[in-house]
């Protein structure tokens, strides 16, 4: 859902979690161009207002990488969806999804190893390192990159992501 009058992402209640979690969903179109990552980072900042700094930093970096990949490898339209659940026990769960109009290349089964001196190619490696779960599904009619971040009561006991 977009609020086209103000060109700002709309925030709507999300459904699906039935464990007493308060939920918010933000959905917005991203520009198909070099500004996709910047707009996506700004939207995540809005969706995660008040979240812990480390979660916000990880979410912004992941979203930037996914938006860049969608622009570089996909076709328009680019759409960002951020689902945020504040758990009654104090935890926070975030799902970030970026879809695009598809591509002709098949999805890698795992992140490709980036060349040490390369200026690009590390996006999915970063996503894999920071996200608690993630997936990438590509096709000629649409591509979907998704990840989940958890903090607080659902975060792993050893402090890892």
TrEMBL record:
Q: Does the keyword DNA damage apply?
A: no
Q: Which InterPro entries match?
A: Anti-sigma-factor_SerPK, HATPase_C_sf, HATPase_dom
> From which domain of life does this come?
Bacteria
Domain Histidine kinase/HSP90-like ATPase residues, every copy: 36-145
Which residue intervals make up region (Disordered)?
A: 101-120
User: Which GO-annotated molecular functions does the record name?
Assistant: ATP binding
**Cited SUPFAM superfamilies:** ATPase domain of HSP90 chaperone/DNA topoisomerase II/histidine kinase
Which keywords annotate this record? ATP-binding, Kinase, Nucleotide-binding, Serine/threonine-protein kinase, Transferase
Q: What is this protein called?
A: ATP-binding protein
